[in-house]
Inverse folding.
């Protein structure tokens, strides 16, 4: 990208020489000296420089500057939060049985390995996780001991270490994350040549402008660099509090872009990708307040009449309820963020959930909206919600 800027500056400088030569030639023909303003040195001029003409290269540099582009590119005023925040407060295991099978629990390790004398069962379901305090193996198969002392067949799992960005001040332009391997083009059209550059999932990009072409939105992420909107989850910066926010602190959930922005004293302080409710279990738009904070919370339930979508999630970390059963919380079962996929809750990576849990207070505002207008807004549509 820096090489592209150097080439741009060289091209603009050559243009300046051409313009100066033209002025000289015209003055020579008129046989009298030019009495107007001189050309400005190549730079961006967001305000009238008064004593020179911001033409030629300066006009182009000013156009780029109005988009937020500078020479060299200005980095985001942000840092990754402490990696220690990504450490889960509990160890997690997945129940690997068929989703139609009940999961038995046993009073002892021996009973669990032999499959005798089950003490109770966890209902059938596709998504079932437990937290454990010990793990042991029998015939190379893992068995975990729960905090209750019971044993069961389950496999320890890892979780996403994705983290958003903490800001030292509000950036001048929008930005976002790449959600999948993306190609970069020289112009906002599929017909434009590819740039010798590939972006990967969770890469951060700055967004300087947007154009619609070929029936899709394109984001300009650098000079002569364009990416389709479907590969980017944009943070739309707005430091004006939503109507009703009274304490200068709010969490903005953007359902279209699948991002969360956190504001304090009219400044962006944190932003990240999330997962929100998938049709028909949308996250309800509106203004809410956090009414309960819990370091861990066991969540279970089903929405289909046949309970085929039953879930059991033990010790969900960093949970903050804001709209009935809908909550902001960590999601150790989710590998990717930036896509809908919940029963109405807002899912974060564990590191992001802990950052937000540490920052937020009960009573802080949660503003949920959909820039596309596609999410139902009628309160009568919504039930209690879930994970």
């Amino acid at each position: 990208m820096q090489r592209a800027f150097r080439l741009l500056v060289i091209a603009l400088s050559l243009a300046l020489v051409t313009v100066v030569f033209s002025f000289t030639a015209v003055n020579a023909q008129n046989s009298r000296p030019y009495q107007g303003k001189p050309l400005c040195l190549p730079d961006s001029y967001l305000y009238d420089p008064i004593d020179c003409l911001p033409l030629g290269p300066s006009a182009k540099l000013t156009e780029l500057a109005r988009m937020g582009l500078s020479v060299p590119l200005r980095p985001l005023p942000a840092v990754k939060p402490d990696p220690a925040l990504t450490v889960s407060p509990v160890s997690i295991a997945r129940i690997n049985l068929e989703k139609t099978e009940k999961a038995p629990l046993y009073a002892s390790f021996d009973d669990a390995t032999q499959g005798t004398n089950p003490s109770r069962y966890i209902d059938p379901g596709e998504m079932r996780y437990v937290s454990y305090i010990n793990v042991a193996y029998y015939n190379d198969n893992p068995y975990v001991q729960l905090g209750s002392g019971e044993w069961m067949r389950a496999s320890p799992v890892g979780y996403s270490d994705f983290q958003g960005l903490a800001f030292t001040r509000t950036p001048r332009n929008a930005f976002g994350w790449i959600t999948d391997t993306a190609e970069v083009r020289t112009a906002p059209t599929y017909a434009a040549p590819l740039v010798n550059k590939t972006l990967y999932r969770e890469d951060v990009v700055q967004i300087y402008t947007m154009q619609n072409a070929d029936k899709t939105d394109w984001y300009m992420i650098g000079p002569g660099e364009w990416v389709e909107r479907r590969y980017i989850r944009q943070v739309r910066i707005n430091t004006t509090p939503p109507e009703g926010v009274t304490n200068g602190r709010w969490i903005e959930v953007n359902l279209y872009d699948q991002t969360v922005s956190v504001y304090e004293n009219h400044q962006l302080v944190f932003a990240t990708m999330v997962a929100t409710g998938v049709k028909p279990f949308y996250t309800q738009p509106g203004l809410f307040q956090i009414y309960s904070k819990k370091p861990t919370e066991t969540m279970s339930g089903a929405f289909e009449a046949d309970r085929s979508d039953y879930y059991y999630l033990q010790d969900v970390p960093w949970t903050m309820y804001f709209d009935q059963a809908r909550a902001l919380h960590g999601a150790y079962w989710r590998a990717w963020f930036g896509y809908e996929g919940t029963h109405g809750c807002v899912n974060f990576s564990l590191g992001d959930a802990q950052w937000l849990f540490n920052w937020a207070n009960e009573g802080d505002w949660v503003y949920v909206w959909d820039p596309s207008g596609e999410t139902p807004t009628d309160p009568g549509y919504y039930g209690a919600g879930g994970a």
